[in-house]
Amino acid sequence: MFIISYLHVALTTRLAELRHDGERGDSPVPTAVIIAGLVAVAMAVTALALAKANNWMTGIPNHTNPK
Fold first, then answer.
1. Do residues 63 and 57 lie in contact, with contact meaning Cβ atoms separated by under 8 Å?
2. Which residues, including other chains, have CB under 8 Å from residue 42's CB and lie 6 or more apart?
3. How far apart are CA 39 and CA 44, in angstroms?
4. Is this prediction's pTM over 0.85?
5. Angle at CA of residue 26, ends 20 and 29, nearest 5°
6. Phi, psi (degrees; rounded to nearest 5) at 27
7. What distances in angstroms separate CA 46 from CA 1, 32, 49, 50, 60, one per listed residue?
8. Sequence-ordered alpha helix ranges (H) in 1-67
9. Euclidean distance between CA atoms 8 and 15, whole angstroms
10. pLDDT tier, 28 (very low <50, low <70, confident <90, very high otherwise)
11. 47 — phi, psi (to 5°)?
């Protein structure tokens, strides 16, 4: 019975310490939103660069597509 009482007190004390410490890091949700935003920006930049390169290539005189 002593071990159960000891474990109960140890667990209760540890949980109280964790609740008292308010700074436990950032939530994963804002991090995921930031990553999704960065991916969207990267895709937009890649699409813009591809469009610019295609326009530049079609502007070359006597242009033929490679086989």
1. yes
2. none
3. 9
4. no
5. 130
6. -70, 150
7. 66, 21, 5, 6, 22
8. 2-20, 28-58
9. 11
10. confident
11. -65, -40
